[in-house]
Request: fold
Amino acid sequence: MTHTDEPRQEAVRGRRDRGNVSDPKAVTWLRPEYRGREDELINLAGGAALVGVSRSAVSNWAKRHANFPKIALLTGIGDRRVKYVPRSEFLAFARAQLSKKRGPNRPPAPRRSAITLRTEEIAHSERQIARLEELEARQAKALTNTRRALRKHRARLRHAQKHLAEEIAVLHGNRGRQGPNQADRFRRE
Reply:
């Protein structure tokens, strides 16, 4: 361990101490050979910080690789469980993961020629234009029908407003000349 690792190790130990190790109900030993050797264990979050990767990277390693170090100790209860693995095994595994060659494991797909790409692009554009023109025609027809219905209902509204105004004028004009009984009779008609 180098001098620069000491603060990290202290931070990792601090996290482990918060894992509720003192409560016997919250401690589960999955590898009892490490009981009494807790200093050799590291929790997964602390291990991620130690090797310089994210906690989700370590979680993915644990899920995807059968050779990921087996959990030695679980602390906490329910969703708040903290997992500990042997530090030396974790560091060896992380070193192997981080030294792997990056990139896809499969050979690259064969490249298509520029002519093929442009031909496919033209065909795609022609299909899109045909689809959009058909959509435009449907929408134009719908817009024409909507405008026709709007003109019809506006005309009906003007007609009804005109007749209402005439009836009100007649009613007001008759009230002044007729008695109350005749106005009531007019309303009933």
Observations:
- The two ends are 106 Å apart (CA to CA).
- Residues 1-21 have pLDDT under 50 and may be disordered.
- The chain is about 60% helix and 5% strand.
